[in-house]
Amino acid sequence: MKPAPALADGFPDLSGMQIAREPHWFRWFSAALILLVLTAIARAFANGQIEWSYVSRFLTAKVILEGIVNTMVMAVLAMALGIVLGIVVAVMRLSPNPVLKTVAAGYTWLFRGTPLILQLLLWFNLALVFPTIGIPGLWSVRAVDVMTPFLAALLGLGINQGAYTSEVMRAGMLSVDIGQYEAAQAIGMGRLRALRRIVLPQAMRVVIPPLGNEFIGMVKATSLASVIQYPELLHNAENIYYANSRVIELLIVAGLWYLLVVSILTPLQMLLERRFARGTLRLAR
Amino acid sequence: MTRPLVAIRSVAKNFGEFQALKNVSLDVWPGEVMCLIGASGSGKTTLLRCINQLATIDAGGIWLDGELLGVREQGGKLHRLSEREIGRQRLKTGMVFQRFNLFPHKTALENITEGPTQVQWRKPDEVRAEAIELLRRVGLAAKANSYPAQLSGGQQQRVAIARALAMKPMLMLFDEPTSALDPELVGEVLAVMKELARTGMTMMVVTHELGFAREVADRVVYMDQGAIVEQGRASDVLGAPREQRTRAFLSAVI
């Protein structure tokens, strides 16, 4: 290779030269290795004792589709309950009132401190504790009639989610500068109005990524409601394999559906983030 | 006889062990422009925050437009006012912060209309027209739909002044309004404040801008260690201070 022509003052003339593309041999090698391993795994599954025809047949079976609808309905409703509870509890936690503060801390402690599946079983079996619910002498119903799998799952998942969401919300509110509260107060706003109009909208930007995380967790946590007979995706898949013994095939069917739902949720989260990023530099420019 | 718009009587404020205000008494007269000067920690910002009740006083009383702030006397005791009543009292004062504190998720125009529409429940159309007029007054008519992040510090502070004015306060409080600004942006904010002073607005300005104080202030108050050391006409306090501590402060900052 001939050396670059020198300039008058002896330094090489670099004008017009391009930055060379490096070959990155190791990247090619490692990618090939990973492909090889994946192929081996795929081959093993293809040759294993899995009847793939069952997977494709049950992927769109009516019971499975009903299951995924029930899963999504439950995830959305329980998450909505969780967010409402979470905001209320976070606001209570940050209030100057010691009673509200203690109640909020106690709620978080209780529902984060016990396993979700245990809470679901407790709600579902509430009739063992209170055979009838109501106002004595005025109105009452049998608990077994009221506490359906749907209601037990909704209460169990939603109230548990509220405990986690309250901490996410509290973190979001704490991330908003104290000057924002003061500016809101200075134009005559009370605490709650300042929270609703000024602080929460700014906190949303911060809490959406962790809330997206929580919602994805919720979609999968609904599968725990299978233990209390709520007909969600996993429960329905189990019912099928109890009948036809195609255990792995139906678990794969359920797994594929969960993956699909979660894959759809990720871009939705990005849309929401953009909505709440109003006024931030990244969007403004 | 006119009465003072703000009457501060024997006010004390402590932060734990630290005495931020010690037995401060002061009158502010309608239409007066008062500049509060002093080293940091001298209590001038705290005094301002006590007037719009971002800080609560520990002793003494502050009357704004003849109304006792923050507490109500009943049966020989003082009872704190409810949040709603304090909010109502705050509407008489407008506050401009050192760090602007504009709402970042709202445009300049929305920052200004937020208070009148959400707190005073006035008609949105009317408020909007007034807000546009206020933006024009602070020289930012073209920036109505910009977000704070798209504005320079000086522009943000001018929007913040317009936001405070939109509530139609009888008293404007400025807490070091130019301290967070780049030097070349200070002038535009001071110009807006001078213009405001010219219209007869009563103003209390905590500032380090002695030039502004000399030019605009009717009265300059020098504070040190939570107490008022000296006050008087700007030319007297700044030009011929009587107290040794005032002289020391002035020679240190000039």
From TrEMBL, chain A:
Q: Where in the cell is it found?
A: Cell inner membrane; Cell membrane
Q: How does it sit in the membrane?
A: Multi-pass membrane protein
PROSITE patterns cross-referenced by the UniProt entry: ABC_TM1
Q: Which UniProt keywords apply?
A: Cell membrane, Membrane, Transmembrane, Transmembrane helix, Transport
Q: Tell me any Pfam family this protein matches.
A: BPD_transp_1
The ABC transmembrane type-1 domain covers 68-269
Per the record, the domain of life is Bacteria
Q: Which InterPro entries match?
A: AA_ABC_Transporter_Permease, AA_ABC_transptr_permease_3TM, MetI-like, MetI-like_sf
Q: Which residues cross the membrane?
A: 25-46, 67-92, 116-139, 250-272
**Protein family:** Belongs to the binding-protein-dependent transport system permease family. HisMQ subfamily.
PANTHER family per the UniProt record, alphabetical: ABC TRANSPORTER PERMEASE, ABC TRANSPORTER PERMEASE PROTEIN
Indicate the quaternary assembly.
The HisPMQJ complex is composed of two ATP-binding proteins (HisP), two transmembrane proteins (HisM and HisQ) and a solute-binding protein (HisJ). The HisPMQ-ArgT complex is composed of two ATP-binding proteins (HisP), two transmembrane proteins (HisM and HisQ) and a solute-binding protein (ArgT).
Q: What is this protein called?
A: Histidine/lysine/arginine/ornithine transport system permease protein HisM
UniProtKB/TrEMBL annotation, chain B:
Pfam (any one): ABC_tran
Q: Where is the ABC transporter domain?
A: 6-250
Record-given protein name: Amino acid ABC transporter ATP-binding protein
Record has Protein biosynthesis as a keyword? no
InterPro entries, per database record: AAA+_ATPase (IPR003593), ABC_ATPase_HisP-typ (IPR030679), ABC_transporter-like_ATP-bd (IPR003439), ABC_transporter-like_CS (IPR017871), MetN_ABC_transporter-like (IPR050086), P-loop_NTPase (IPR027417)
Give the family, as the similarity comment puts it: Belongs to the ABC transporter superfamily.
Function, as annotated, reads: Involved in beta-(1-->2)glucan export. Transmembrane domains (TMD) form a pore in the inner membrane and the ATP-binding domain (NBD) is responsible for energy generation.
